[in-house]
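Appendix B. Raw example, untouched.
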Amino acid sequence: MSDFLSSVSSTETSRRRYPVEYKRQVVQESMVSGASIARVARAHGINANQLHNWRWQYRRGDFEVATQEPILLPVQIQAAQALHNSPAQAVGGQDDATAGDIELMFSAARVVIRGAPDQTTLRCVIDALRL
């Protein structure tokens, strides 16, 4: 055991709170080649499950010392390209009749649209079938 135990605090519900430095020391001790988690936990008077939890937190970076300021990276922002509100274009030399299929399933109907219909037509079909 170490001097860190003198700074362990207890609450009225007998829940112990350990300082980060103590947790870091115990975790690093458990990560030494050949170390047994159960033995290290027993030597420090803690449960092995608690040590497993501390090791997970350590790997996540919870016990790191925040000694340096955050590093800001340069960022370049490019203007977003305008979206076109036009029908789909034929791909790979296909004509409009075979540009693609749209299949709509409704409770009372199944509609297959071949090609690239304009938005107005598509909206009319969908609205008519929802009724």
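End of appendix B.
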